[in-house]
Each structure stands twice: as C-alpha cells, then as structure tokens.
Amino acid sequence: MGLSSAAAGEGPQLCVFDLRRGQQEGQELDKILFFHPADCPILLQLSVIGLCEGIITFARFAVLLHPLLTRIPLLFVLLLGSSRRIFSPDDDCEVIESEKHSHVFYQAEADIWMVLVVEKNKDIESTWRCGALQGILKEVHSLFTMFHGPIRTLLDRQPSAELARGHLRTFFTDYLSDFNAGKKIQLPTFRDCLKERGTVQMLTISREVALEVQSLTTVLGSCLGNVMCQSLVLFEDLLVSTTLPPDDTLNLYTYAILRLTPRALLSNATSWSYLRKGTSVHAGPTSSSSNGTASVERYRSRSRDTSPGGQNQMHHYFRPLQREKLYKGKDGFVAAGSTTSEVRGAVAWVPILWFQQAEDRMHLCVYQHKNITILLLIPASSLINGDDGIAHVKRHLLENASQNIVTLELKLSRGWGGENAYHVGGYRYLLVDPDRKVSRASPPGKVTTLSKDSLLSLNRLREEIDLEKSRAKRSDSCHDKDFEVL
User: Fold this and answer.
1) Do 138 and 255 belong to one domain?
2) Which portions of the chain have biased composition (kind: Polar residues) (predicted)?
3) Which DSSP state fits 371?
C-alpha cells in the first residue's frame, strides 16, 4: 500500500502544471501545461497531477496537522512515504517516497510546479539520488526561462496557455532527448554521483594567459562602440572567463556545453531528433463521461494547435535545443540550417536571451576557433539596425579580435594537460563551491575505475549530505555556505 500514480513499467514521467488553473469542475485538464510521455492516457495524466496537487496541498498544511499525525504514525508513513520528511507552510515539498515510486517536486515559479515521477525497481543500476533528479528540473526550467521568459509571463500574455504549452512541449521534449537510451529515458544514476549539475567547470590559467584573456575580453566588450557587450570564453568544455553574474553565467554555460561547444556541435551533426521520427504530441485514447470526453477533445485540440493564430505552426517555434539545426559556418560563427547544404540552408542564428540577474535582454552571437568558443552578448535595446547591427558586430570581432583569439587558443592548447589534467593520483573527488556555483571533479574515465560498491556508498553519502543541507536550510536560512568536498 502507498502512493501510486503510474502504471508499472511505463518509465519516468515529467509534468508541469499550474495550480491557479483548472479549479472548476470539468476544467481539470486546463492546469496541465506539459506532460511526458505525450501519449500517456489523459486519465493517467489527471491521476498523476491530481495526486501531486494533493501532496503539495497536504505538505503546506502538514505542520498544522503534525500533532494529530504523530498520534497515528502508520497513517503518517502511508501518506508521506517517509517519516523523516518535515513539512511546513514555508518550505516546498521536495520528495515523496512510496513503495513503488519516487515523486520529485520543484516549484519553478509561484504555483507552477514541475514533478518527476520515477519507478522503483530491484535493478541496482537504476539507483538514483533525488537531489540529482531535482537538479534536472531546475536546469531545464532555468534554460527555458533564458530563452522564453518565465512561464507565468507566457500565461499572462495568452491566458488560453496555447503559447506556453507550445514552447514547453518543444523545449522540454528536445531537452529530454539527451537522456534517450533507445526507446527509454536514462536518468542519472549512482554512477554519476561524482558530478554536480548546476555548476560551472573552470579552467585554471597562468598569469600570462590571464592577461591575454583580459585583452580579448576588452576587445569583445567594445564590439558595439560605446555600448558594453558581455561575453563568455570557453576552452573545450571549460569556462575561461565571463563578464556575466554567476546565475546568468551558469545558464549560458550549461547551454553552451549542451549545444554550442565543438564537442556538442560534433554530436549535433551525428544525432537526430526523435520528434521528427513521428513522436506525437496528443494524448492517447481513454474512456470517460460525455462531459469529460468534450474536455479531452478540447485539450487534444490545444495540444496539436499551439500557435497564437490558431493554425498548426508547431515548426515555427524557436527550438534552441534541437540538435541538428546548429553547426559551425565557414566564417566561424554558429549558424542554423542544414549541415549538408551550408550555403543554401544556413540562416542567421542570433537568438535573444533573457538574463534575470543582469535584468537585460541580449542577442547571442557565437564564434569558434579550434577549441575556443566565444559567446558574445549584445544588449537588444542598443541594437537599432537589427541584422545590419549584428553584421557590424561580427565584422568588428573578425577584424579586431581574431589575433587575440588565435594567440589565446595557442597558449591554452600548449598548457592543457588533456582530460586528465585535474586528476589527483590515488583519489576520486568532487569539490563544489555553492556561492560561486563552481565545481571540479575527477575525470569521468578515472571515476569508472571505482567499484560498484564504492559508487553506491558515495551515492548514499551524498543523499545524507543533501538531507543535512535541507535541515540546515530550514533551521537557519542565513547560514554561511561552505565548500563541499567528497
């Protein structure tokens, strides 16, 4: 007996829903903004989200019921899944464990929740850490907001939610494609316990190279005359420099690692999007009452037709995570189009991003030279001439920064020790600085030399650390953050 909202063997489920919507009887479907898998029956979608909504509501008021629940410990365990969990109106529900499933919660925005439901099984290879799963939810929401803005803003702009659903569907589905393992989704397991999602990996450089980086950053900042441009410089998959605040740096760095670095672009060219293999976005058939059937049909219609104008223009949605669309052009700038027809298929790719910490909208222009990736950010409010202004910035970069980039790449390549540069003989480690959102870890190839038992022990240790951090956060919200070393 226990919490159960999913059929056995169906794989992970991810949903996004708005608690402010669908409060009237018969309108429950309106609160669903995204559900994976898309072909999951409507009644099962409603069951999953209904259970999650009940848990959220219960968790918010559990502190008021705590004296009663402690008198009925069996009921407490059955409802909460774990007597170790502490709830209060001031803290969001994070994880609910049941006999067959784990429900991982994340309140992305006010009353907008993301929930990942994963099935438990006896296969030890499927052992995961709930903190790592919640990191996936935080990451995809941060990336989505950087490209499309807050979900609540999209809902306010178009109350029917068609715009929000369309962007969520394409963005989240493209993001989840990175976890594809055949026909299944492979989420992070205990074998990833020495990785930290939501952090930046920095490249250690000498004083001489630091001066070269400073010179390049100055040139990049002046690409638009008196208007200061921002920039990130990467060498392979490591961050060399940034002029953005930490949160904005993390989001853009994460996107660069996923899709823009030389390694990512090579992966883009050899991959395919399963969306184009016929994966549908409508729900599967179900049985329901006549009123329910009408609601289902309206929901299916909205799921297929997500454009503001009411036409099926799904392919017109900007899809920054669609792998096969991005590649390095002949001029060194990343372009969008067909890699097999570069001249005919290429189009300018200069998306506008929203940086919450910097509180500004900026155009992103990406340039590559060998192992160097330059992410140049141009304030949208200062770019008056549109495409002509972008062309001017590109010319300025090529004319004034090319030599700096070549020199920097040469010096970094000479001093780079390869993927094992940060290996510490005899140790396997993970170092995290929460304040700066920076981490460093043993190379993946070295981590694989650990035994399964060692990795499982490390995973359990990280679970205990996550629990202690959560307790410390509740007891003292102003406590100092320390380095975390494993």
Assistant:
1) no
2) 285-294
3) T
What are the start-end ranges of the H helices in 149-289? 151-157, 162-176, 207-221, 246-255, 262-269
For residue 57, which of 96, 5, 25 has the smallest C-alpha distance? 96
What range does the domain containing 443 cover?
430-485
The single-letter code of the amino acid at 171 is F
For the chain, what is the mean pLDDT? Answer: 82
Q: Specify the amino acid at residue 182.
A: G
Residue 285 within any structural domain of the chain: no
287 assigned to some structural domain: no
Mean pLDDT of 216-230: 93
Structure tokens belonging to residue 197: 């999602």
Using an 8 Å Cβ cutoff, are 12 and 117 in contact? yes
Residue 2 lies in a domain: no
What are phi and psi for residue 297, nearest 5 degrees? -65, -40
CA distances from 188 to 32, 129, 191, 272, 421 (A): 26, 8, 8, 21, 25
Token readout for 161 is 């939610």
Sequence letter at residue 276: R
C-alpha radius of gyration, the chain, whole number = 24
213 and 362 both lie in a single domain: yes
pLDDT digits (tens, 9 = 90+) for 326-356: 889 899 999 887 544 444 455 668 899 999 8
CA 164 from chain centre, in angstroms, equals 17
- The distance of Cα 351 from the centroid of its chain, to the nearest Å, equals 18
The β-bridge partners of 16 are 34, 114
d(CA 334, CA 348): 9
State the pLDDT at residue 128: 87
What residues pair up with 378 in beta bridges, in sequence order?
A: 363
> 449 and 348 in one domain?
no
* Closest listed residue to residue 75, CA positions, set 1, 167, 154, 169: 1
What is d(CA 478, CA 266) in angstroms, rounded to the nearest whole number?
A: 44
H or E stretch covering 291: helix 290-304
Structure tokens at 365: 């222009």
Single-letter code of the amino acid located at 376: L
Please report the beta strands in 274-325, taking only residues with DSSP state E, as ranges in sequence order: none
Provide the 3-class DSSP secondary structure of residue 202: strand
Distance between CA atoms of residues 14 and 29, nearest Å:
16
Q: What is the mean pLDDT of residues 435-442?
A: 94
167 and 223 within one domain = no
What is the count of structural domains for the chain? 3
DSSP letters, 250-276, are: HHHHHHIIIIISHHHHHHHHT---GGG
- Please give the full DSSP string across 32-69, using - where no structure is assigned: EEEEESTTS-HHHHHHHHHHHHHHHHHHHHHHHHHHHH
